[in-house]
Specification:
With 93 residues, the protein is an alpha+beta fold. The chain has one domain: Arc Repressor Mutant, subunit A (Orthogonal Bundle), CATH 1.10.10. It contains 4 helices and 2 strands, in the order αααββα. The protein has a two-stranded antiparallel ribbon with strand order 1-2. Strand 1 and strand 2 form a beta hairpin.
Length: 93
């Protein structure tokens, strides 16, 4: 039996990988909207908007502040949020 579609598609409701964050940075720097990035990556547009909000940092360039997306900042915020989630130990309360 031969499979025609042997490349796996990214499933919905799964976490972003680090290479996907890099693709988001590249496409966002080219001026693409979150909706267009989501269509290209096969993700929900709200996922892309949340990631752009998570990894955006204010930088001062000249006399004005500029909002820039960095994928490593998004990854570190994601990891810190994952450490905080889950049930707390009852003995510690």
């Amino acid at each position: 039996m031969a499979y025609l579609n042997d490349t796996p598609k990214p499933r919905k409701n799964k976490h972003l990988k680090s290479y996907e964050r890099g693709q988001i940075q590249l496409l966002h720097s080219e001026g693409m909207s979150a909706y267009a990035i989501a269509k290209r990556l096969g993700r929900a547009s709200n996922t892309i908007r949340n990631e752009l909000k998570r990894g955006t940092v204010s930088q001062i360039k000249g006399n004005k502040t500029v909002e820039v997306y960095f994928p490593d900042v998004g990854q570190s915020v994601y990891e810190s949020n994952r450490k905080k989630c889950g049930a707390k130990f009852k003995l510690l309360l």
